[in-house]
Specification:
alpha+beta, Transferase(Phosphotransferase), domain 1, 2 domains, six-stranded antiparallel β-sheet, 41% helix
Length: 283
């Protein structure tokens, strides 16, 4: 594809390449009709899976109605491949964002909760939708701090069959065994993504070895390590049964320091009140 030489579909002029992934390339485009910026993803048809990935992405993007997902506004095909036009996200992916920022633990946990909210929306659809490709490059953060999930090439319905895909280290082990994925597969990927969010360390391909690294990393609070280890259990039955349970555990963890402060403050106030009463009686 001569990426920046022509106007596509009579209206989209590609001006810069924004990124490149396993399924294709993403460009910034100017809509010459309405003078607006869009993101244009090109998925080539040079592999057997190209057409399937393009169809998947279009189908799921069109069905999403949640602020964490960009809107698809146009799609068209050529002999070379498929072009998908969607909202341009003025921001950076999580990997690039974290390189230049030193974020407090609570803010990182808030970002994790926003990712969980997006996954919950997918999982609670009828029928449920599995994302299956959660990783730092697929989580965008806008200038205002909002989270967007991108790249739905391998997303699929719960009962649908698909080819083994995913990113080693982040993808659940069952994704490479020819089926059996469910919502807990995304929970596994969330656990690995959350660990990266906290440490900037990508998981190794060997999930058992990675879990040992997580277990022994004392730079991550023990309560959060416990959540991550349950998310990433090798046996699917050992993981949380659903996203809401992960959210509940993380919110519970975040609430503990605040409750402790409230208890300490209440104890100090009680002590001061008793001291004042005792002083008044002695007078």
């Amino acid at each position: 594809m001569n990426s920046q030489a022509a106007i596509l579909n009579g209206r989209y002029r590609l001006t810069a390449q924004l990124g490149r992934g396993g399924s294709g390339r993403v460009f910034l485009a100017e809509d010459i009709r309405i003078k607006k910026k869009w993101a244009v993803k090109f998925i080539p048809f040079d592999t057997l899976s190209g057409r399937e990935l393009a169809g998947n992405e279009i189908r799921f993007m069109e069905s999403m109605d949640h602020p964490a997902f960009p809107r698809i506004v146009d799609a068209f095909r050529t002999e070379e491949g498929c072009y998908i036009v969607s909202d341009y996200i003025d921001g950076r992916d999580m990997r690039a964002y974290l390189k230049g920022e030193r974020l407090p633990l609570r803010l990182k946990c808030e970002y994790a909760l926003r990712v969980l909210s997006a996954l919950r929306y997918m999982h609670e659809r009828k029928p449920p939708v599995l994302y299956l490709d959660l990783k730092p490059e697929n989580v965008m953060i806008t200038g205002s701090g909002e989270i967007r999930l991108v790249d739905f090439g391998i997303a699929r319905g719960l009962m649908e069959k698909g080819v083994p895909f995913g990113t080693r280290g982040y993808a659940a082990p069952e994704q490479y065994k020819g089926g059996g994925e469910d919502q807990r597969s995304d929970i596994f990927a969330f656990g690995m993504f959350f660990y990266y969010l906290l440490t900037l360390c990508d998981p190794v391909a060997d999930a058992e070895k990675q879990r040992a690294l997580i277990r022994n990393n004392n730079s991550v609070p023990k309560g959060i390590r416990r959540i991550i280890l349950r998310c990433t259990a090798l046996d699917m039955d050992g993981r949380y049964a659903g996203i809401r349970k992960v959210e509940r555990e993380l919110r519970k963890y975040l609430g503990r320091p605040r409750r402790r402060i409230i208890r300490i403050t209440a104890a100090l106030l009680s002590f001061m009140l008793l001291f004042l009463l005792f002083s008044a009686v002695r007078r």
